[in-house]
Every structure is written in C-alpha cells, then in structure tokens.
Amino acid sequence: MACPCGVEPAQIILNAQQRYGREHTHSPAHLLFANNYYLSLLGSLSAPLANWIASLKAGKKIFNAMGISTTIPFPKFRFRTLSREKKNRSRSLRKIALFYGCFINFYRPDIGRKMIDLLRAFNLDVVLPPQWCCGLPALGNGNTALARHFALKNAASLSNYIDAGYDILYSCTSCGLCLLNDYQKIMKIPQAKKIAENTYDIHEYILKLMDDGYIQPQFQEVKRKLAYHIPCHLRALGIGYPAAKLMALIPGLECHVLDDACCGLSGSYGFKKSNENTSIQLGSMAVSRIGKTGADVIVADCGSCRMQLAGLSGMQAFDPVEIICESLGMKDRKAVNADKR
Asked: Residue 278 to residues 235, 261, 270, 274: CA-CA distances in angstroms?
C-alpha cells in the first residue's frame, strides 16, 4: 500500500520464489502443490474416497509427514466439476468466455454455476473454453517449466476465443493477475498482450455493462452485515474494488471493506508445515479486524482467502457473486429479476 509508483510487490515476491526454486531442492510439499492441477483432477475423480482420507487422523499424519499443514481443513473435492457443465448457448451479441480457475472447478463448482446463471440472465452468451491451471501454483512453487506449459495451452485456447469475438472473464483474482501480468512479464507467452487487453474481472465487467446501459439490475434488499476482505492479488491488479461497488448498490446491505491485511494463506504458502505459524499469525490479525466490524459473514473474491478466514474465525465466507445473486432473487438456477436489452 505504501510502495512508490512502479514498484510491484507481487511481482517482486514471485521473482524471488523463482530464484529460490532454482537454487534449492524442492521439498515434497513444493512438488505436490506445483502439480496442484493434476492432484485436484485426481481428487475430484475419486471425490468420496479422497475426502474421506483427508478427514482421517491417519491421513492428516501422512500429510504432516510430507510437510503439509492440516490446521485449516482442506476443501472438499467435487465429482461434478464445472468443466463438466452442459453447453447451453444463446444468440446474444455479447460473448463471454469464463476462465473459472481450479478452486471453483474442483472445490466450489456451485459458485461457478451461479456465475454462469448470473451472466446468462444478463443476456450474455457464456461459454467455458478448454482451460487448465493458470500456472500460478507451479510458479509459486518454483516449477517455471510446468507453469509455462499450462500458460501456453491456456493462451492458445483463450486467444482463439478472443479472435472469435469473445471477452475473457476471470472469477479468481489470483488467476486474473497471472493471466494479465505473469503471462507477459515472467513467462513471455506470445499471445499474452492480446489476452491482457481482452480480459476482465467478472464484477468489473458487470459494472461495465451497467455503464454501457446494457443491463439495469434491480437489486432487492439484503439484510446482512458483512466484512469484505480484499485479497492481496485484487489490490495488485489495480482495478479498484468492483465487487464492493456492486454490493454498495444493494439496499439494506452493510459492507465493511477491509483492505489492510493478508489472510495469511497466500495460495499454497500456508499449507506448508514450515509456514504454519506465520500463516496463522497473519490470518489471526485479519480475523481480528473482521471481528471489530461486528459483521455476520465474510466476503472475499479469492477462494483461498475464504477458506483461511472461515477456518480461523468459524464464520461463513461467501463469494461476492453469492451476495449479488441473493439480492437479485437467484436461487438454484432461477432467473434473475433484471431489465435486459
């Protein structure tokens, strides 16, 4: 927050992680989290068994022996991932390709389906392009080659959709930062500039549609007092807090914006046993700030932030889309009460 103009802390940290990865032997935890996409894919295919093993004391002992912290409960794998969602096209002139990310796909596809329903209710043609991990977990764990492998596959897929007239939307701020910055500055992906020029945060895009007069959502009253935790990667994107602007339009909603603390999990950082104490200390500071607001629930754009803060506080944590859908009367894929053109 206090760094001078042009200094990018997220970029500096990521570069340091790359250097560390080149100079040190990777631990089992680093190897596992670098391959998080493949592990999550395997976990979702065997969801009941994988979730059962993760809940056992014996399973936790095995994880601890591998250097993985089990202080915060692991999210549950879902067998029906978002990537298996049925195709449902429309003839709208506005075309969207949704980059939903690993967390939504493998752990919270229900949130992803709400995103799709919300966008389609706004008369948008929404598709789910072929996609892989954005590459950030591999980058953060020192495997640049694997990160670039994912990035090249994603770039080829997303570039084709951009050429076909689609705007790219991301649902995860970490994925968004990787697509917009790391593909260009670290991995030197050929199509990176085109992707950066045509990629938007989902809430940023909804505000754009409202400014263009394309939609006029009729927000209904929501009686909630929430603490909106701003993820570090959202601050790094430099687009402001678009979800906060949308939630400010909801009658009855009391929203406390907290943008001065890190949740402490930082992707896979907090899941490493060696970082456990630091992660919990940072997370506890964020939870203390949340407690002072008197909020009933936590809201955050990042799945990792929600997981950490909910685990440390015992409070429910929501994605902003869930609050927006609640205000628009969208439950279980019901139509949104909005005026569309």
From this structure: 21, 13, 8, 9
Tokens 């954005």 belong to which residue?
Answer: 134
* Tokens of residue 106, six digits: 């493998």
Residue 110 is encoded by which pair of tokens?
Answer: 């229900």
Sheet architecture: strand order including 253-258: 253-258, 224-229, 297-300, 317-318
Span 261-282, average pLDDT: 91
Contact 94, 169 (CB under 8 A): no
Measured between alpha carbons, how far is 36 from 101 in angstroms, rounded to an integer?
A: 12
Question: Which tokens hold the place of 85?
Answer: 């969602």
What is the model's pLDDT at position 2? 62
Please state which of the four CATH numbers 3.30.1360, 3.40.50, 2.60.40, 2.60.120 is assigned to the domain occupying 217-327: 3.40.50
- Contact, 230 vs 258, CB < 8 A? yes
Instruction: Please give the model's pTM, rounded to 2 decimal places.
Output: 0.90
Query: For the segment 138-172, what is each residue's pLDDT rounded down to a tens digit?
Result: 988 888 899 999 999 999 999 999 999 999 999 99
Among 82, 86, 87, 73, smallest CA distance to 41 is for 82
Residue 208: CB atoms within 10 A of its CB come to: 15
The domain ranges of the chain are 217-327
How many C-beta atoms lie closer than 10 Å to residue 211's C-beta? 8
